[in-house]
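Project standup — Tuesday

K.O.: blocked on the structure for the chain from last sprint. Re-posting the sequence here as requested.
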Amino acid sequence: MSLTVFSFIVFCLATFANCMPISCPCTTKNTTVTSYCENSASNRQCWGDYDIRTNYYDDEAPFRTGVTRTYWLEVTNTTTLAPDGIHRQMITFNNTFPGPTIWANWGDEIEVHVTNKLQDNGTSVHWHGVRQLDTCEQDGVPGVTQMPIPPTGFYTYKFFCSQYGSSWYHSHFSLQYAEGAVGPLTVYGPTSADYDEDLGPLIISDWRHETAFSDMALLSHSGNHSLQTAVNILLNGTNTYNATETGCVTGHHHNVTVEQGKTYKMGLVGALTENAVYFSMDGHKFTIVSNDYVPVEPVEVDHVYIGIGQRYDIIFEASGEIENYWIRAQPAAVGQCAFNKNIWNSNAVLRYAGAPDVDPRTSPVQYLNATETADGPGEYLQTCQEDFLPAGERFTPMLALNVSAPSFDDFLFAQVGFHWNSSDHTASQLFFVEKHEDVRKSPNASDPAALLNIDHTESDEHSLIVNFNEPTLLNVMENKYNAPNTNVYYLPQQRDEWVYFVVQSQIGIHHPIHLHGHDFFVLGQLEDQFEARHVPLLNLTNPMRRDVAMLPAGGSLVLAWKTDNPDAWIMHCHIAWHVGHGFGLQFVELEDEMKSKFTTVTDQNSLWTQNANARSKWCMHDLVDQDDSGV
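H.V.: unblocked you, prediction finished:
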């Protein structure tokens, strides 16, 4: 691709920014610790005038640094990459996979200029896990917070880094992220345990050699197409591939080089589409210090379950012999949370400095299914849940926050059904959300079979399909109606009210549930449907907080959060096929505040509106069929 002088300079600046060393944070003098402390190898809980127990949900944000980190991204069709040695068409950021690392320090702002170089499709970029306090229009969800960026279009995202840890950014337009449109997003801040060096993010992706779009189109228009099985797991964009039809091994393993005796931090990022994984490092235990963007009390483990969209920061000591060891991201196929043809070679190499340049010969952790008994050393059940911690341990957030006790009548419910809508095959409608203020009103509560009728659609249930040309945010600003199939819940108008929400299903599949705009409190993960008898058993004392949690197969996920962030926020299953088939819903939060704060949406001179106008103009000539939910 030829570059103009200007674009070449821009590219160089962006590359330079990605390679800049981590600097100490700029801070104001509103302190939460008794004195300034330097973040160092012997005191990682410090962060200048703040520390790991500073309340990062504070709306006043005294830890703002005034620093803006600027990046440039181009979304492109790419045909030159072969992540596991097999070339295929991809959609990427800046023709790389994963995309360029975007990083900042806690309290910085990030500004990203995005150009859509795709020929036939819109795009958008979502900053996974970023709270977007009062910047909902930067969340990057087409049909919810913006219109897609049209081909040749340009859009700038700018947001505040109120939290810290490891995450990722990805296109939220249809299945583009399944085609490679992902990249690491790291915000540096304090850590609950000490370490010598930060190895950065390890992006874990499941991979296919055929495009996801071709699969979705066939399923959308037929209703009986079988989706392709993933063929590989990639670690930081690479792995080997053993082609059974030829016997040829292509590609290479990602290498992580360490020095014996040093302690390292690494960010595990589940940038996955369908396959959850169990992560381990042969011969090495490690300490979890955060889940998603929430620092936790250190807890030592020898494996971790990573659901789609979930992240963990870990610390480990290079305490082994000077050898090579397998790093494993094994698809959770035993627990039925992954479908992958490469179960046993989803590996990278932990290479000690001075070790020979040969493949490891180390042995893995052994995983068993739920019907077996784990009674031997190194044997563990694959349950597809966040229950892999040692007995008596749980994820305990460093910033301790409690939840007010609810009654059963305080809960809102989403009952998820699973069947094909035989009346409309123009778009994928397989998962349906039935909204209830009280689960006892559910017509299916006493008839589980009704949810499995493959051609039965209840009048009060809807499969999520967004309207690219009428985003929910715009409809709210203009007092317009949101269609039933946008699955909108209107939350209480009062600020700082508790929302108690249950997602439940009688489908025998585990689902990773992601909420935009909030860390939710996980009050319970039940193996059956939520009832009044469960309320006294909920965990209300500093429960686990995160933005992706597992809905157990056939069970319920019980959540809570406060109305403190005005917007239209989407909640969805993060299995790409599932949200594409309609497994999603929205919350309109603090509607009156939205109308007073987000005036850029209706300002004809704003970039938001300019993008909307460009999208509308493009649609007049090049409208492409929407085969799925749009997100």
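K.O.: great, moving the ticket to review. The chain is about 10% helix and 30% strand. The radius of gyration is 23 Å.
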